Amino acid sequence: MDLTLTAGSRPVELEAAPHTYLAVGDVREIEILGLEGAAYLDNTRDLAADVLPEEPPRLTASTDRITEATGEVTVVDPVLGRRLVSTPRGTSRTVVWNPWDTLVTGMADIPDADWPRFVCLEPAVAKDGFVALEPGASHRLGVTYRIEG
Question: Which of 25, 39, 55, 77 is surrounded by the most beta carbons within 10 Å?
Fold first, then answer.
């Protein structure tokens, strides 16, 4: 998937992310490779700055992290016996999101029982990783997702 965004007649500080829901067997069982040791902003704590541990992160509660990671990220899903690989292009961040049971009840577009069945893994340009576009300039944001196993 590729998306090209073009500024109009005024300069733009572009922030964008495809809100991609990846199906998983159980979000509580997945492991995420490629974000180890990355700095991030925690949107569940008013954008508090933090750093992920050096081992692959696992989700244990409502998660909304804007990580300073631009490389390939892999979701290892032992329940479905597969790996979901995200290869981004034109990005400055990777967002990891799941509302968990605590936030899903206030969301009209997600059935309450479905939060364990997905994780959002989004290549992004966001926060201080925005892209400055002059009038008429464009930026291409893209990602390829691959299923292994």
Answer: 77
Q: Which residues contact 102 (CB under 8 A, 6 or more apart)?
A: 61, 62
The HSE-up count of residue 70 (CA atoms within 13 Å, CB side) is 9
- In this predicted structure, what is the pLDDT of residue 106? 86
**Which tokens is 18 given?**
């495809």
Residue with tokens 């981004």: 88
Question: 100 to each of 39, 97, 110, how far by Cα in Å?
Answer: 22, 9, 11
Number of helices (H) and strands (E) in the chain: give both, helices first. 1, 13
pLDDT > 90: percent of the chain:
93
pTM greater than 0.90 (yes/no): yes
How many angstroms separate the CA atoms of 113 and 100, rounded?
A: 10
- Concatenating the DSSP letter of every residue in 109-136 gives TS-GGGGGGEEEEEEEB-GGG-EEE-TT
pLDDT tens-digit map of 108-133: 889 899 999 999 999 999 999 999 99
Q: Are 101 and 113 in contact (CB under 8 A)?
A: no
